[in-house]
Design brief:
The protein is mostly beta strands and about 80 residues long. It has 1 helix and 7 strands. The strands form 2 sheets. The protein has a 4-stranded antiparallel sheet. It has a 3-stranded antiparallel sheet with strand order 4-5-6, with no helix packed on it.
Amino acid sequence: MRGNEDHRTLYRTLHEEEAEYVQILSAVRGCRVTAGKMYQLHRNYNNPHIFEQGEMYVVDDDSKDNYAVLMLCATLLYR
């Protein structure tokens, strides 16, 4: 039983396939995310041959899918 989603405890993980949330430690200019903020990770399964666990992205501050966050920004992953 997972409990109440509003009061859920998050745990750090090093494994991208387990991650459900990402915290942005530092953002590069133009990345459209806020440093210090937590974002929910989403997965795109359109290319299963390339991304077995789904290509990860966040919905950024402009409400757009942002696939570059994990490559360009310093992050911590949480499950």
